[in-house]
Every structure is written in structure tokens, then in C-alpha cells.
Specification:
By secondary structure, this protein is an alpha+beta fold. It is about 25% helix and about 30% strand.
């Protein structure tokens, strides 16, 4: 790319009554990263990078650094997520046909710790100004009434240009009702339930031979919604119901992940590791409080704690060479989500200066992915077995998804609790389970349905 990237970041006055970042989710082609009403939303596309294969992370890293190294950046705020920003989604597997991607948007809205901003990006000689940035945002948020958006739905509840230019009132969206179950079909994807349970049993057999300690097996289901898929509405539903998760949307990949692969702010890197799951519906009718039940059944399970310990060791071992100091919870905590409980641990590291440079987000991802939490251990053995037993290409499912800026900051979750919008009326959902020696196929199948629930609910499908 020969054009010079230029960006202008200006403060934005977004009142708390506006509903925060999710109120900007009004188009099906929006780029999204949101948690607790904070995060980033992107509109438009100035450039994109795609790659496949084992070097996809490093190739993307080189492309991004070349793009931003000579960029003309006006950024008075200088906080993570201001200035040049790209959103990304990467394939789970180095053998996948899915094209991993970084997307450079035209407009980015950000909210973080009470601060709000707007960034206008360009690769041409157009003049950048605050008024021009606001007008560009207004254009993306206020298309012609009924104008179809990327996934075939219609954007709803667009604010007026005067609201955008002054930001003196809340930006709201209409709560469009979701499609009921009557016309929806839900079908198995690559494997039937019976075949997938056999795959789990085969995985347990392989574990018992000593070839590997843990294997993560996923399955897919395809939902057909004849009235169409409203991606923006799905994202708003996820952001509202799963506030403790990171809601993501990149090129038709949508979801709300509870797992942070790596978050980088300056020289500090953090991760949230999950392994061990309990369906909250299992607590119904049990003695004691739901949390007491979770502590007893989840934290007290040798199988679940063993699975969790494998995941923690996988991450800390891979992160250690890039760190000069690291700490992790000595005991996992119970992460409470609307559909499940998880055993969770947070890891924090101070990044080392290696040959005069702090490692970038994508360099760290290259070293960390795939973790035992989404693949298994040993990784190479588990990866080969996954391809054999799942009989599908995961595409971006369980791959890194998130954003990065020119200063080296970024947040990259693992694309879990999500789906790919494959057409205006079809969505492919994915869910997986950690398989260890004590795994029971029927219980693992039930766990996948618990993990499908966030997406099914957001699509208006009762589960």
C-alpha cells in the first residue's frame, strides 16, 4: 500500500443514558468489540489484509506495522484504542481454508473508563476535521430507511444527524423483536449428535493410551431463520445479556466470549483462562444457593480442576519467554455467566524488552495460540486428532478475535460462544468441550447445548 494513513481522534460527548457502546450497533456490517458498555465500534473499510497458514499472525503483524509506521496521527487522547485501529479475526488452524484478516475501518467510536472518542481514518488527501468526522459517523449511522445491511437485515432506530453533531441526547436503537421458533430450523452440522458422542469416546480412548492429556472437541449446528438474520440486533442482545463477556463482530463472525487470550496495554499483558464448565440449569432444585452448588460441583471436581490446570500451564509456559514477571491466581475462581459457571484464572505479566522492542499483540498471539483451553495438550497431537475426529474446518471459531492500535495496545479474545452468519437466513453455531480421561460423551453433549445457548437466545430460538 503506497498511500499514507492519516487519522484524527477527537473527544466525543456520549451521555451515560445513551446505553454506551451497544447503542452504536445499528448496522449488520459493523465491527464490534464491547464489554460493560465500553469498547470499540468500527464502520466502513479502508483496507484489509488476509492470510492463511502457519505464519498468518506474523504476516499480519508485518502488514500492520508497515501501515502505521509512517502514519500521520493526530491523537490528543493517546489512550488504548485511539489513533489507528484495526479489527481482526484469525483462523483457529494453520491448515484452515478460512482467510484470517485485519480490517482498517473508516470510522471508530470508542468508550473507555468514562472517556468517549471518535477517530476518522483516511488513505487519501481528504481534509480531516472534527465536523467532517461527525458527519462521516452520521452517514454510517443514518442510512436510507430500510436500506439492507451486510447480512441481509435492516438497520433500525438510527439517530438523526442533528443528534450526532451535537451529542446532546442519548443515541438509542429500537428493540426489534426476534423471530419465534415457528419458522426456524436447527440442524446438525458436520456430525450428528450420535457421531459426535462417538468422537468424544474415541478421544477418551486416545487419552487413555497416554498420547495426550486433554483434547478439545467442537461441533456445529446450522440455524435457518426464514425472516432473516439481524446481526446488529444479535450483537446488542449479546452485549446486554453477557456484560462480563467480550461481544465481538467481524465480517459476519459474531459472539460473546468469556475468554481473553491476551490484552496488552503498554508493557502489561493480561489473559483470562477458562476450563471447567457447569450448566446453571443443573442447579435448579438443588440444596443451598446456586453459587454454593457451583463451588461444590465445579471447584470440587478433580476432573474439572485437572482440565483447568492444564489450560493454565499451557498459557503461562508459552507466555514466560516474553515476560520479566508474571503472576496468576493460585486458586481458580468461579466465573458466573447467565448460562454457565466456569473455573477461571487471570494471568498478568510484565512484558520483557527483547532486542529493544516489547513484543506486539500479534507476536504474542503467534506464541500463545492455540492454547490447551481450545485445542488440548500436547498441542500438535491434539490438533491432528481434532481434524480427524471433528470432520470440519473450524474456520475462525476458537481463533483469536479482537483489535489492535498503532501504539501496540490491543485486546484479543478467543472466538467462543459465537457463530458465523453464512447467508442472510442461515447461521452456523459452534461449541466445544474439554475432553479428559474422565469425560462422559452424554455429559459433554449436554455441555455443548449450554454453550450454544447465548447465540440461540440472541437469535430468538428457545433452547
Amino acid at each position: 500500500m503506497t498511500s499514507t494513513l492519516r487519522t484524527l481522534t477527537v473527544p466525543l460527548d456520549v451521555y451515560s443514558s445513551s446505553g454506551g457502546l451497544p447503542s452504536f450497533l445499528v448496522r449488520d456490517d459493523v465491527l464490534c468489540w464491547s464489554r460493560r458498555e465500553n469498547g470499540l465500534v468500527g464502520f466502513g473499510e479502508l483496507a484489509r489484509f488476509t492470510a492463511t497458514g502457519p505464519d498468518r499472525f506474523l504476516e499480519a503483524d508485518i502488514w500492520w506495522r508497515h501501515l502505521v509506521i509512517e502514519a500521520d496521527v493526530t491523537d490528543p487522547l493517546e489512550i488504548p484504542g485511539t489513533g489507528p485501529v484495526a479489527f481482526g479475526s484469525f483462523a483457529f488452524s494453520k491448515t484452515s481454508a478460512f482467510e484470517s484478516r485485519l480490517i482498517l475501518p473508516e470510522i471508530v467510536v470508542g468508550i473507555r473508563d468514562g472517556q468517549s472518542w471518535l477517530t476518522h481514518l483516511t488513505l487519501d488527501d481528504a481534509e480531516l476535521s472534527e465536523a467532517g468526522a461527525l458527519a462521516a459517523l452520521a452517514g454510517w449511522l443514518s442510512p436510507a430507511v430500510g436500506q439492507p445491511t451486510a447480512a441481509g437485515g435492516s438497520a433500525v432506530g438510527h439517530p438523526t444527524n442533528s443528534q450526532l453533531l451535537s451529542f446532546r441526547g442519548p443515541i438509542t436503537t429500537t428493540n426489534a423483536s426476534q423471530l419465534g421458533d415457528g419458522d426456524v430450523t436447527l440442524e446438525s452440522g458436520s456430525l450428528s449428535e450420535a457421531d459426535w458422542k462417538q468422537a468424544v469416546a474415541d478421544g477418551v480412548t486416545e487419552i487413555r493410551t497416554g498420547k495426550l492429556e486433554k483434547l478439545v472437541l467442537a461441533r456445529d449446528v446450522v440455524a435457518t431463520l426464514p425472516d432473516g438474520v439481524n446481526a446488529a440486533q444479535v450483537l446488542r442482545q449479546l452485549a446486554s445479556r453477557y456484560r462480563e463477556c467480550w461481544t465481538y463482530g467481524v465480517d459476519g463472525l459474531v459472539g460473546a466470549t468469556p475468554e481473553m487470550l491476551i490484552q496488552v496495554e503498554g508493557r502489561t499483558a493480561q489473559a483470562r483462562v477458562l476450563a471447567g464448565t457447569l450448566d446453571r440449569r443443573d442447579a435448579e432444585g438443588m440444596d443451598g444457593s446456586p453459587m454454593e452448588y457451583a463451588e461444590r460441583v465445579l471447584a470440587g471436581s478433580e476432573k474439572q480442576r485437572h482440565e483447568h490446570e492444564i489450560a493454565i500451564q499451557s498459557l503461562t509456559t508459552q507466555l514466560a519467554p516474553f515476560s520479566e514477571a508474571m503472576n496468576a491466581h493460585s486458586e481458580p475462581f468461579i466465573l458466573e455467566l447467565p448460562n454457565v459457571w466456569h473455573l477461571a484464572s487471570d494471568v498478568k505479566a510484565e512484558l520483557a524488552d527483547i532486542e529493544g522492542h516489547v513484543p506486539t499483540c500479534l507476536a504474542l498471539i503467534n506464541a500463545l495460540h492455540p492454547t490447551a483451553a481450545v485445542c488440548g495438550t500436547p498441542t500438535l497431537v491434539a490438533g491432528e486428532l481434532i481434524r480427524e475426529l471433528e470432520q470440519m474446518d473450524r474456520g475462525p471459531y476458537a481463533g483469536p478475535v479482537g483489535w489492535l492500535d498503532a501504539a501496540g495496545n490491543g485486546e484479543w479474545g478467543i472466538a467462543l460462544r459465537g457463530a458465523i452468519i453464512e447467508s442472510p437466513t442461515t447461521v452456523r453455531l459452534y461449541a466445544g468441550c474439554g475432553i479428559v480421561e474422565g469425560s462422559v460423551p452424554e455429559a459433554e453433549l449436554a455441555e455443548t447445548w449450554a454453550k450454544f445457548r447465548p447465540m440461540l437466545e440472541s437469535l430468538g430460538i428457545n433452547s
